[in-house]
Write a structure and sequence with these properties.
7-stranded parallel beta sheet, 279 residues, alpha/beta
Length: 279
């Protein structure tokens, strides 16, 4: 097998659909797209509700309602059963890590039979990391420092199987200096390695940044690989046609990182096994 094709991913664990309010299509549309690409596993992982805010649907257009979560799980479980023997469907969720609300999130996750949980940090210093105009007033060093501090806490929380889109805070931000990167990244890589979590290579970085870096970027990936952190694939698709997005580039990137030719193998963190590759 060509080294770049060992993780020409036959799986994709980060997907969304219309339920979150900012994606299109049904779960079945996404599994059909995965099957058409010859994938063997596909993860349904829409944005979980804003459990840390009052009300049933505190953030419409961003996340599903609290009352919608049981229906989401039931639909995903039905799809999993329907696809058995053709495509292995994993029932997951993308859950926000919110400092101080770990107990609430643990209760939410334990109430449902998830195969895995993606852990994401979407907020730093009280605002979305994807809020473009924040950079005209916020000090980038402060935002980066708070974001990566929370990533460390998320890794140590024991709540997640996969950590999502690390370095995403840098998507629309001014470039991180080498000195700040050297100060912040190693502690993140150490915490992730100690946690046993898998890290996804999230190709939305290519879409958001328009360059040649996924989330996490190469600098972080090299540190993770050196520590033996298992890596998996997530397209973060919000349209069925984005399933498997840039998986060829991920295969080439893994070869560049010294992981070419390594076959993905099942890794179990806290829930069920997930395919990942490691040094």
């Amino acid at each position: 097998m060509h080294p770049e094709t060992s993780l020409l991913p036959r799986f994709d664990y980060h997907s969304h659909h219309a339920r979150c309010g900012h994606a299109v299509g049904t779960m079945a549309d996404y599994t059909a797209a995965a099957a058409a690409l010859g994938m063997t596993e596909f993860g349904v992982s829409d944005h979980g509700p804003a459990y840390w805010l009052p009300g049933d649907h505190a953030q419409p257009g961003t996340q599903m309602a609290v009352s919608e979560l049981p229906r989401y799980v039931a639909e995903a479980q039905a799809l999993k059963a329907n696809q058995a023997g053709r495509l292995t469907v994993k029932v997951g969720i993308e859950a926000d890590f919110i400092e101080g609300k770990e107990a609430e999130l643990r209760s939410l996750l334990e109430a449902h039979p998830f195969d895995y949980a993606l852990g994401s940090v979407h907020y730093a210093q009280g605002a979305s990391i994807f809020k473009r105009d924040r950079w005209s007033s916020d000090r980038p060093e402060d935002v980066f420092t708070d974001y990566y501090r929370q990533v460390v806490l998320a890794a140590r929380s024991g709540l997640f199987d996969i950590l999502s889109h690390l370095t995403a805070v840098e998507a629309y931000a001014p470039p991180v200096s080498d000195s700040l990167r050297d100060a912040l990244y190693p502690a993140v890589a150490d915490a992730v390695a100690e946690s046993g979590c898998i890290v996804e290579v999230n190709t939305s970085g290519y879409r958001k940044m328009g360059g040649d870096e996924p989330f996490p970027n190469r600098h972080m990936l090299r540190l993770l690989v050196a520590r033996g952190v298992p890596l998996t694939f997530g397209s973060d698709c919000h349209k069925p046609e984005e399933v498997g997005f840039a998986r060829d580039r991920v295969g080439a990137l893994l070869a560049e990182l010294g992981l070419g030719g390594r076959e993905p193998a099942p890794v179990t963190v806290r829930r069920g096994p997930l395919l990942a590759v490691r040094a």
